[in-house]
């Protein structure tokens, strides 16, 4: 049952934009604001009432509905739809690629802010910083939007998927960012550790295995390292040969560009943005393959188990 729900939600999340009608977080924001004042006396009360309590209530509901297949299927479906990522981030990625194609730095920053709100001007102090920020933002957004939620849903069911999404919403809330309530970054990192390493391993399978696997082994047990950095370094190693092919095609198509010796700042910026575009396209192609392999692995586990 879980696998069929995952396939349905994955298809809808990729090819449709109607998931937003169920992904309304007003109730969560209301609860968090209501209980934020209690953190002065009992620091963890906001986390208990806004994250642990809804997950507990859902678990009780699933126990009550045990044996009622249709209702269980519906509840699991609705919870997974609610738990997958917010906003139409895939469309933002398309617009980001178009901005990179135009070598429009300001537009790139604008779309990155939509994909990853923590992206700011300070991260672009050097033009060479564009690709790491683009790469990490895209990878982490797909990780938290899809892979982590689906991974824990497949193993532990709807309560685990809801737990991760509520933890993520809690950590992203302005009260947590302003340190008015205790942060949940440590718990969130632990929840992302295993799925992020699994996705990184799939980078090895779908990309350049030899170099990527060496990096993957180094980062496997580094729990304190942010998931975006692990995914980013592994992805760089996985797409290295594909990027070289794109670069070779670019050099062959325009050999006269290689004869230009005088390089000004604008030319360097344009070239760097074009290289970021080529890498982003390679990364996007690899992510498509990773998603197919990920679903195939879940199908195989469903048959075996």
Keywords:
305 residues; mainly alpha; 14 helices; 75% helix
Structure explained in plain terms:
The chain is mainly α and 305 residues long. The chain has one domain (2-304). It contains 14 helices and no strands. α5 (89-101) runs antiparallel to α6 and α10 packs antiparallel against α11 (209-219). 33% of the residues are buried.
Number of strands: 0
- Assembly annotation: single chain
Biggest sheet, in brief?
none
Spatial gap, N to C terminus: 12 Å
Discrete helix count: 14
Helical residue percent?
A: over 70%
Order of helices and strands: HHHHHHHHHHHHHH
Structural class, by secondary structure, is mainly alpha
- Spans of at least 5 consecutive residues whose pLDDT stays below 50 are 241-262
Strand % is under 5%
Gross morphology is globular
The tally of domains stands at 1
What Rg, in angstroms, do the CA atoms define?
Answer: 21 Å
- Mean pLDDT, all residues: 83
In short:
The chain has helices at 2-15, 26-36, 45-64, 69-83, 89-101, 105-115, 130-156, 158-172, 174-177, 185-206, 209-219, 227-238, 240-253, 265-304. By secondary structure, the protein is mostly helical.
Write the layout of secondary structure elements.
Elements lengths: L1 H14 L10 H11 L8 H20 L4 H15 L5 H13 L3 H11 L14 H27 L1 H15 L1 H4 L7 H22 L2 H11 L7 H12 L1 H14 L11 H40 L1
């Amino acid at each position: 049952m879980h696998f069929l729900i995952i396939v349905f939600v994955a298809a809808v999340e990729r090819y449709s934009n109607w998931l937003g009608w169920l992904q309304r977080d007003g109730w969560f924001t209301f609860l968090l604001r209501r209980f934020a004042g209690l953190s002065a006396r009992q620091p963890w009360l906001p986390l208990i009432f806004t994250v642990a309590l809804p997950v507990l209530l859902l678990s009780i509901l699933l126990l009550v509905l045990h044996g009622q297949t249709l209702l269980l299927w519906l509840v699991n479906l609705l919870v997974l739809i609610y738990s997958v990522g917010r906003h139409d981030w895939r469309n933002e990625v398309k617009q980001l690629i178009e901005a990179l194609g135009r070598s429009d730095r300001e537009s790139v920053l604008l779309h990155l802010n939509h994909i990853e709100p923590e992206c700011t001007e300070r991260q672009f102090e050097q033009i060479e910083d564009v690709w790491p920020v683009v790469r990490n933002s895209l990878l982490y957004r797909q990780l938290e939007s899809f892979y982590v939620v689906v991974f824990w849903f497949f193993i532990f069911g709807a309560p685990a998927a809801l737990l991760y999404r509520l933890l993520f919403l809690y950590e992203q809330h302005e009260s947590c960012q302003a340190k008015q309530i205790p942060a949940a970054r440590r718990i969130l990192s632990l929840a992302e550790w295993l799925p992020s390493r699994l996705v990184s391993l799939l980078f090895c399978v779908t990309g350049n295995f030899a170099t990527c696997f060496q990096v993957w082994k180094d980062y496997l047990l580094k729990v304190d390292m942010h998931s975006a950095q692990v995914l980013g370094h592994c992805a760089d190693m996985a797409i290295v040969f594909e990027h070289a092919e794109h670069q070779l095609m670019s050099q062959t198509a325009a050999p006269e560009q290689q004869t230009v010796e005088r390089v000004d700042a604008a030319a360097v910026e344009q070239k760097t943005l074009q290289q970021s575009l080529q890498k982003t396209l390679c990364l996007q192609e690899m992510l498509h393959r990773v998603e197919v392999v990920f679903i195939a692995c879940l199908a195989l586990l469903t048959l075996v188990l």
